[in-house]
Design goal:
84 residues; alpha+beta; 3 helices
Length: 84
């Protein structure tokens, strides 16, 4: 299930590229690729090009990019606590 959020109106800011880090969290194939087990669909397909463009602009400007990935065991509590 995907919840729609009410975001405030964005405001332009100036960032020093050398001091800027873009943190990309959990953009994983499981949710973001059409063959992924939990593919989100159109919402994720709309955001991927925006993230890719922002990542490219940050790198061109000399900033850094960090990707995170959630790695858990299939028997982790968040997967097993709701099994019937």
């Amino acid at each position: 299930m995907l919840n729609e959020l009410d975001y405030p109106t964005p405001k332009p800011v100036e960032l020093n590229a050398a001091d800027t880090l873009l943190l990309i969290i959990d953009m994983e194939n499981e949710n973001a690729h059409p063959s992924g087990a939990l593919f989100i669909g159109e919402p994720v397909m709309k955001i991927i090009p925006k993230i890719a463009d922002l990542r490219a602009r940050i790198r061109r400007a000399g900033g850094r990019v960090v990707h995170t990935q959630s790695i858990r065991s299939p028997d982790a509590l968040e997967f097993t606590s709701s099994r019937i």
